[in-house]
Amino acid sequence: MQPPYHRLEEFVPLTGSDEGLVRRFAASSRKIHRGHAIRREGDHVGGIFFLMEGWVASSMMLREGRRQIVKVHLPGDMLGMPSLSLSRAGETLEALTDVVVSVIPCPALGRMFIENPRLAVGLFLSTQKERVALMQSLSWIGAASALERLAAFLLDLHSRLNAAGLTRADGFDLPLTQQHLADLLGITPVHVNRTLKRLDQAGYVQRSRGRIVIADLAGLRAVAANAPPRFADHEAWTRLGSPSGNHIPDPRAG
Amino acid sequence: MQPPYHRLEEFVPLTGSDEGLVRRFAASSRKIHRGHAIRREGDHVGGIFFLMEGWVASSMMLREGRRQIVKVHLPGDMLGMPSLSLSRAGETLEALTDVVVSVIPCPALGRMFIENPRLAVGLFLSTQKERVALMQSLSWIGAASALERLAAFLLDLHSRLNAAGLTRADGFDLPLTQQHLADLLGITPVHVNRTLKRLDQAGYVQRSRGRIVIADLAGLRAVAANAPPRFADHEAWTRLGSPSGNHIPDPRAG
DNA sequence: CGCGTCTTTGAGTCGCTTCAATGTCTGTGG
DNA sequence: CCACAGACATTGAAGCGACTCAAAGACGCG
User: Fold this and answer.
1) What is the pLDDT of residue B248?
2) Does A116 touch chain B if contact means CB atoms closer than 8 Å?
3) Phi and psi angles of residue B214, each rounded to the nearest 5 degrees, phi first
4) Which nucleotide, over all strands, has the C1' atom closest to the CA of A197?
5) What is d(CA A59, CA A185) in angstroms, rounded to the nearest whole number?
6) Taking every annotated instance into account, which residue ranges of this chain make up the domain HTH crp-type (chains A, B) (predicted)?
7) Cα–Cα 20 to 30 A to A245, which of A122, A197, B7, B143?
8) Which of A85, A121, A142 comes nearest B128 by C-beta?
9) Protein residue nearest nucleotide C15, by CA to C1'
């Protein structure tokens, strides 16, 4: 199966040699079973992870029991990057399904900044996009009701799954328990259940054993009532002066 | 006055020529008066800003009226970076006091990735640190009470002001209205007031016309009950293989 | 079939919101 | 020097959304 590179080239065009570089990391891939941790808060930071298959939740613990899921990662995402700025990992990466990740060690990252500025810029912009996503989450959780948050999450998930080519018939399998959703949305599991029920009974979604079907996309958007940000794609890269990197010509120029 | 470079060299040692580069941007500085916007949601993204003096709030609008303040910036911070990944600015940058910012245009950023990988790595790690801060905020707002959030914010502010050398006698001027605090913490202005009153009457802080004094640091920490993350400083840089950039020797090696 | 995990539902409570009014400060002009 | 306006802070009372506690139902797995 073709590894999910759509996130890598969303801001920067990939050359053949770029792909070769990335493919080398894919060789060092690790499998982790559902429910297990890829890395825990406080663990040593040896690198970052590229998610090849499966879903991952990255979360932070608060006092006793309370935890906040910060992001649900899909195939193609880079995991554990924020912890690069910490002396010990600040987030727990939990496999929500069986997953395959490839490891990118720290020194390889450092080398990339010198040898391949193009990819470095891509990674940099990708991180900024993640920051925007975090700011969005913060806004929802800070200023929206439980119904709005849940609707917004389902919509976000749906669009990201589409981008990765992982939806079938406007529906998708949701491998999160209601406890997970609660930790993600900042509400209790009980209230997740009631809120899901409301969305279901109002005809916006249909649920059947872990599978979600968006029955009324426009209606759901009206509930969430937030315009998703428009990303810049390669436009951002050209805005930065298209730093081509190690003298490889821009493949888009020809 | 010495420009606040402490955030620039927190992860990467600055060489003399680095400082020269940065100082050139300082020349193109702009003054903005309190209450005015540096950049609005939807504006053209021409670059990023380096905050020389004053406080800035970056916020996102939700539906009519509701807004979420995502971060309060202090001197030394870089502003508006997330919007690099968007075709139009996704955040509003509002001056909370009279401020001075210098502009770093997009092409200059792109050039830096080629000509000065060292600074690029520093900026990259700095962005990861901001991401961790965002994840922290998300956790507080999602899983903590109003009292805990407020305590955590005041503590965070206090420690960042200390790092910038901007506190006097364990106190600081807080140029935020209670409306600002409300938009930041995700509660109503009315409840901000009641919560501040509780912190005051319990002896944790003292308030007097916009000035905050931390009266009981340990007590306030116990209320917030969150361990701040330990950042990696130059450790992260060495972990990445210390990419020195354009053949300038590592000043820390000698 | 039986066990554990997850989901669903009900009833009572609490934190925060909403609405509304009063109090306080600051700057401005007469 | 005082009167006034506007913005901000403070306080009260009532209501609602989400929480807590608790129990029963459904599913998946050995």
Assistant:
1) 45
2) no
3) -80, 110
4) C8
5) 12
6) 144-218
7) B7
8) A85
9) B145
Decide if B239 and A106 are in contact by the 8 Å CB cutoff. yes
Name the DSSP letter for residue A138.
Answer: H
Chain A, 75-104: which have a CB under 8 Å from a chain B CB? 81-88, 90-91
Q: Please say whether the beta carbons of A155 and A216 come within 8 A.
A: no
The whole-number average pLDDT for the span A101-124 is 91
pLDDT at A1: 57
E-only strand ranges, A203-252: 205-208, 211-214
The first and second tokens of residue B25, run together, are 């941007």
CA dihedral B139, B144, B149, B155 (to 10 degrees): -70
Nearest nt to the B187 alpha carbon by C1': C16
The secondary structure of B156-171, three-state, reads HHHHHHHHCCCCECCE
pLDDT of B58 reads 97
pLDDT digits (tens, 9 = 90+) for B178-231: 999 999 999 999 999 999 999 999 999 999 888 899 999 999 999 987 777 778
Task: Say yes or no to pLDDT of A2 above 90.
Answer: no
Nearest Cα to Cα of residue B202 among B212, B215, B213: B215
Pairing of strands A56-61, B37-39: unpaired
- 3-state DSSP assignment of residue B35: coil
Kindly state the average pLDDT of the residues B64-88. Answer: 93
Measured in whole angstroms, the distance separating CA A111 from the mean position of its chain's CA atoms is 25
Which tokens sit at A118? 């193009």
Task: Quote the tokens at residue A15.
Answer: 């050359």
Whole-angstrom Cα distance, residue A223 to residue A153?
A: 11
Q: Which domains does chain B have, with CATH numbers?
A: 1-143 (2.60.120.10), 145-228 (1.10.10.10)
C-beta of residue B84 within 8 angstroms of C-beta of residue A125: yes
What are the residues whose beta carbons fall under 8 Å from the beta carbon of A209, sequence distance 6 or more? none
Give the per-residue pLDDT at B1. 58
User: B105-136, pLDDT tens digit by residue?
Assistant: 999 899 889 888 899 999 999 999 999 999 99
Verify if strand C has an atom below 7 Å from the CB of A193: yes
A196 CB below 7 A from strand C atoms: yes
Res. A164: pLDDT tops 70: yes
d(CA B211, CA B23): 32
**Residue B19 half-sphere exposure toward CB, CA atoms < 13 A:** 10
The three-class DSSP label of residue B59 is strand
Within 13 Å, how many C-alpha atoms sit on residue A146's CB side? 17
d(CA A246, CA A44): 32
Question: How long is chain A?
Answer: 254
For the cut 70, the answer to whether the pLDDT of residue A235 exceeds it is yes
- At residue A226, what is the residue type? N
B186: CB within 7 A of chain C nucleic strand: yes
Contact B79, B53 (CB under 8 A): no
